[in-house]
Amino acid sequence: MRQPAPSEPALDLSPSPGDTVKTTTCYMCACRCGIKVWLADGRIRYIQGNPEHPVNQGVLCAKGSAGIMQHYSPARLSKPLLRVGERGRGEFREIEWDEALSIAAGWLGAIRERNPDELAFFTGRDQSQALTGWWAQQFGTVNYAAHGGFCSVNMAAGGLYTLGGSFWEFGEPDWEHSRYLMMWGVAEDHDSNPIKLGLGKLKARGAKIVAVNPVRSGYGAIADEWIGIRPGTDGLFAFALIHELLKADTIDLDYLVRYTNAHWLVLRNPGGADDGLFARDGEGRALCWDRDSGGAQRAEAVDISPAVVGEYMLADGRRAVPVFHLVAERYLDPQYAPDAVAERCGIPADTIRRIARELAEAAFEHPVRLPVAWTDAHGREHAEMVGRPVSLHAMRGISAHSNGFHTCRALHLLQLLLGAVDTPGSFRYQPPYPKPIPPPNRPGKQRQANGALDAAPLGFVHGPEDLVVDADGNPRRIDHAFSWGYPLSAHGMMHSVIRNAWAGDPYKIDTLMMFMANMSWNSAMNTRQTMGWLTDKDESGEYRIPHIVYADAYASEMTAYADLVLPDTTYLERFDAISLLDRPISDADSACDAIRHPIVDAASQRLREDDAPRDVRGFQSVLLDLGARIGLPGMTLDDGSPRYRDYADYIVRHERAPGVGLLAGWRGERGELEAKGPPNPEQLQRYIDNGGFWRGHVPEAARYFKMSNRAYLDWAQKLGFLGHADPIALQLYSETLQKFRLAAQGHGAQQPPEQHRERVATYFDPLPIWYEPFEGAQVEDAATRFPLSAVTQRPMFMYHAWGSQNAWLRQIAARNYLYLHPDTGARHGIADEDWIEVESHHGRIRVQAKFAGNVQPDTVWTWNAIGKRRGAWKLDKDAPEGRKGFLLNHLISDVTPRGDYANADPVTGQAAWFDLRVAIRKADAAGDAQSRPQFEPLPGPAADDRPLRYGVEFRRQR
Predict the structure, then answer these.
(1) Annotated domain spans of the chain
(2) CB neighbours of 142 closer than 8 A, spacing ≥ 6?
(3) Would you state the pLDDT for residue 4?
(4) Spatial separation of the C-alpha atoms in residues 359 and 332, rounded to whole Å
(5) DSSP assignment of 462-525, as one string?
(6) In this structure, which topology does domain 774-922 adopt according to CATH?
(7) Which of 1, 50, 47 minimizes the C-alpha distance to 688?
(8) How far apart are CA 576 and CA 574, in angstroms?
(9) What percent of the chain clears pLDDT 70, i.e. is strictly above it?
(10) What is the pLDDT of residues 687-714, one digit of tens each?
(11) Where are the alpha helices (DSSP H) in 317-403?
């Protein structure tokens, strides 16, 4: 008997991830990739990369994919909260929004009438600074800053005062043409998907990749060569490379004369008020020495033969030398020879010499020639674009040191000597950069008749006259930014605000308002004392910081220290503008901006069926509401009613200048204009229809030499990126820094108070310098007592503190270790996975060690921001993040060992996280398997111990 043929099951070979798909912008790191969010029955089913998006071209990392569990996190806040117990205890009662906004408006309104500077408004991982900075300006407080002061201001300021652009988000390597890439201090957190795409292109072409970092992870793991440098010595390494290039005469003098101030004359008048300034004509234009005519000519003139070395006497009897003469004089000094710096950097001298030869070979023996005709800013026509295929890229590893500003400048000097800035194959600017040097916007400091500041609170100082100080030279800002202690603090100094507010230095404030700033935990140096300052009371029993308003989407450690908590939405529930006025997502060949828009409604987004509905609002809309309630300029109509309905309305209708708004795409009444034009009521819908982004391509003839390319300068001026189309001379030598040094030497109308003079004179050198980071230099016998450097890196799978509450990402790592080289363990009598004590001059912690061969032997390291305070983030009070996870922050002082300044770069105020020096020893065997210090768990509802199996309902439906 024949058996019946088996029946084939019905297979869906192309299952749809959901019933609806929407495009928006990811917020799981600062990369801001385009994503496609699939929904099923109104719930988020799947997140994938958007192949059409210019940032990631469809690539998505683990963080982006896990955005589902960020959105559905148990730690989400759900109602406004008003403190009912002691601050820091986390005891609140839920209130309605009207009451919350009335309370906040009452505090803020009284401050504005009395003294706007009594409000300190500081934002953390905020990507809407174009709004928050404008809001602070309209409020009239100088006390506003963003997270960049403890993150990346050295990088930004070092680049913007040298190149008119910088590493990180303002520039990128030429992934298509580079033959040699050096990555300095680059971890896997920022810009990760574009870097991965770019590295793939370099590897496919056989380009060499060199990673300079004390830790080898991520990108460094696939590099062709890893240079395990000692932390804080990158500047010395760069100077040794410069020394070798100068000694071998392998530099691009033609590039230097065409595009930099290498030939500008610097006055030599020791003791004089003009010493070290540029020689200028009667119209203020810089001069050079023309060898053909034997006299001074305008440095920008064409068809001259400028001298780059030698001393020359000007017609008025003053003596001057070219900038390049000073460069050669300094860096040819034997103190910068490879043999002189090798031991300090931990890099063999032969390796330094070889890297210098390889850079020179790639740059000068393999020039890139593109058959693209272009015209420079002086009218000279070029039949092709010729470039040096050497790229440098750098990040926090060089920035987060007290010598980081000058280290960043040292890397830019290295690039310029190679002719490797915005040429084919080299570092490239991303529009709207380059900017004039320094950028034109100065920090606001005077209040107008309507109470608003005369400019935004953050900006770029051009000289001592721009400092925000009083008549005696003392700080006017609560964080001391833009003072004689930290003059070029372009992002502010968020890491100093809590100590200074507690101390009333330089005055007492009334309200500290913060957004997404976990300043009681992983964003704080000196964590234990910071928590104490937030809760400390004066003799009358009142809190020294009277009011704290905190906005966040999640119950972080900081939430417990607020008096009023304003619950934010998740990034999939609100509008955001990723603006060219703020932190752009451009690439080198196009200007780009983007939006986020509500994919789902917050009230409907429950993690479990028995969860209460959430009543949350986007903080940007809340800010505008508060501004209207207290009548801030620009936020109300003549009748006192709100000018803007919400943040989405503000994005569309607000104009920073006539025709210039937050978004550049589809401007004009019909959306026919780009960058400049009247508001378009349908603008947001046009973005949504286009995948959430706008992209304006740079003309082909304008894509390189942007600082001196007529087509680019005209295009950038037309789009409003530049106020004028003059060429931008790149600055090997900074006259801005020299102005401060002259002031410290007793010249000019604005001079530093006596206690700051030596500091300013020392660190405001117009050429890059290197000095020992302050912690190593100021602690007595530091090399013996604290022989190891200690640094953190952000893992590729967790960007920030909010990532380590994510149920999916926690499966990758739910605690961290202190990683050390096996040889380091052997030297200190430590075995793999021993519990150890780690001590700095400031504190002591107890952690578990783990051996790793991917670290320089004089350095220990760990992953950043995984350690949690128990009870925070709605994690179980016995979660590994709290029991075994830890922060190095407990070891880091917020002031220098001498106690006279913030633990920060003296030029910019950048927090010096990576200056930390430690000693390690095996812990007492009697201790339990738990990290120290441990703090009392934060109270709150018990964590739900049911497993999070998000998505099972979708499988059941199928």
Answers:
(1) 20-60+573-697, 171-429, 774-922
(2) 117, 443, 444, 445, 453, 457, 468, 476, 477
(3) 64
(4) 18
(5) -SGGG--B-TTS-B-STT-TTSTTSTT-TT--GGGHHHHHHHTSSS--SEEEEES--TTTTT-S
(6) Barwin-like endoglucanases (2.40.40)
(7) 50
(8) 7
(9) 99
(10) 999 999 999 999 999 999 999 999 999 9
(11) 323-331, 338-345, 349-365, 396-399
Asked if residue 724 lies in contact with residue 717, where contact means CB atoms within 8 angstroms, the answer is yes
Give the C-alpha separation, 764 to 752, whole Å: 13
Q: What single-letter DSSP state applies at residue 360? A: H
Q: What is the rounded CA–CA span in Å between residue 649 and residue 831?
A: 60
Q: How far apart are CA 557 and CA 572, in angstroms?
A: 23
Q: What is the pLDDT of residue 126?
A: 64
The answer, yes or no, to whether residue 928 has pLDDT greater than 90, is no
Distance of alpha carbon 328 from alpha carbon 930, whole angstroms: 55
Q: Which residue from 211, 200, 193 is spatially nearest to 175, judged by alpha carbons? A: 200
Residue 433 is given by DSSP the state -
Residue 262 contacts residue 314 (beta carbons within 8 Å): no
Residue 767 per-residue DSSP state = S
Q: How far apart are CA 708 and CA 725, in angstroms?
A: 9
pTM score > 0.90 for this model? yes
* 234-247 vs 323-331: helix crossing angle, rounded to 10: 110
Say if residues 855 and 214 touch (Cβ distance below 8 Å).
yes
Reply yes or no on whether the pLDDT at 1 is more than 60: no
What is the phi/psi pair of residue 526, to 5°?
A: 55, 55
Answer whether 761's CB lies under 8 Å from 744's CB: yes
Q: What is the mean pLDDT of the chain?
A: 94
DSSP 657: B
Q: Token digits for 117?
A: 């500077």
Which superfamily does 171-429 belong to?
Dimethylsulfoxide Reductase, domain 2 (3.40.228.10)
Share of the chain above pLDDT 90, in %: 88
Query: Among positive and negative, which fits the CA dihedral 716, 717, 723, 725?
Result: positive
790 bridge partner residues: 860
Backbone angles phi, psi at 642, to 5 degrees: -60, 135
Summarised one tens digit per residue, pLDDT across range 749-806 is: 999 999 999 999 999 999 999 999 999 999 999 999 999 999 999 888 888 777 778 9
Taking a C-beta distance cutoff of 8 angstroms, is the pair 69, 948 a contact?
A: yes
What integer is the mean pLDDT of 608-614? 78
* 356 in Cβ contact with 341 (< 8 Å): no
Question: Who contacts 618 (Cβ-Cβ below 8 Å, separation ≥6)?
Answer: 568, 569, 573, 574, 575, 646, 647
Give, to the nearest 10 degrees, the angle between helix 234-247 and helix 404-417.
Answer: 20
CA distance 852 to 866: 18
Instruction: In whole angstroms, give the CA distance from residue 634 to residue 647.
Output: 14
Q: For the chain, first and last CA: distance in Å?
A: 37
Strands 788-793 and 859-863: parallel
Residue that the structure tokens 């992983």 belong to: 522
151-155 mean pLDDT? 90
CA dihedral (282, 283, 288, 293) positive or negative: negative
The b-or-e profile of 542-563 (16+ CB within 10 A means b, else e) is ebbbbbbbbbbbbbbbbbbbbb
Cα-to-chain-centroid distance, residue 4: 69
pLDDT of residue 865: 85
| Residue 12 pLDDT exceeds 90 | no
Strand ranges, E, within 361-409: 368-370, 374-375, 381-382, 385-387, 390-394
Helices 404-417/153-160 angle, 10° precision = 40
pLDDT digits (tens, 9 = 90+) for 448-480: 999 999 999 999 999 999 999 999 999 999 999
Cβ contact 408:398 at 8 Å: yes
Q: Find the largest Cα–Cα distance for the chain.
A: 118
Write the CB contacts of 272 (distance below 8 Å, at least 6 apart in sequence).
Answer: none
The candidate with the shortest Cα–Cα distance to 799, out of 549, 516, 475, 447, is 516
* Cβ contacts of 640 within 8 Å, gap of 6 or more: 631
